[in-house]
Recover the amino acids of this structure.
């Protein structure tokens, strides 16, 4: 429960479980505008300064609320991206995706965008199909950032690809701009993993 003073000095009680901060600040703006219309000429100058102050504070609160709402991308098993996939361009080859929290910066802050990690294996021969389990040294890894629960940007430059490749989670898989779609598996394909399972732990 929040007791809030709204101009001209009316007290309202809000249940914050039902109203967001943005709703509250918009209410402040509306009440401030109402107070403006109710002013008489004798107090117009000083009162209008107060209203401008209330409206400025409310607008600032709305602006500050937006970045907080942007950080909604989930991590770990809660992220739709996390899991194992089938890549039709490399049948039976490892494609594992993880989403982890962004690392701390030097100033102690953390990016609102989680990190997406993709570990894969493209086979030992000239063909695109994998028939053997990979070793640790044969794995490749690329990373990127998750912008939302359905959109990410990957840096495939370590594999000779683009450094800003968009990846969209849609209809049970990850879709790339060229139309290729990795289909998410409902199980762990142990035969595609290195025998040393600790290989795929996040560094």
């Amino acid at each position: 429960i929040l007791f809030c003073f709204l101009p001209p000095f009316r007290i309202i009680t809000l249940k914050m479980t039902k109203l967001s901060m943005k709703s509250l600040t918009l209410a402040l703006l509306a009440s401030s505008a109402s107070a403006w219309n109710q002013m008489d000429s004798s107090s117009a100058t000083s009162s209008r300064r107060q209203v401008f102050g209330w409206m400025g504070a409310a607008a600032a609160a709305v602006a500050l609320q937006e970045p907080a709402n942007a950080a909604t991308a989930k991590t770990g098993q809660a992220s739709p991206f996390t899991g194992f996939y089938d890549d039709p361009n490399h049948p039976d080859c490892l494609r594992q995706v993880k989403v982890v929290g962004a690392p701390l910066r030097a100033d102690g802050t953390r990016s609102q965008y989680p990190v997406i990690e993709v570990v894969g294996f493209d086979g030992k021969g000239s063909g695109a199909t994998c028939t053997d389990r990979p070793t640790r040294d044969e794995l490749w890894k690329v990373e990127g950032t998750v912008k939302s629960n359905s959109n990410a940007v990957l840096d495939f430059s370590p594999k000779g690809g683009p450094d800003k490749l968009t990846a969209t989670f849609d209809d049970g898989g990850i879709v790339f701009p060229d139309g290729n779609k990795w289909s998410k598996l409902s199980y762990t394909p142990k035969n595609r993993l290195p025998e040393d399972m600790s290989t795929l732990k996040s560094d």
Observations:
- DSSP finds two helices and ten strands in the chain.
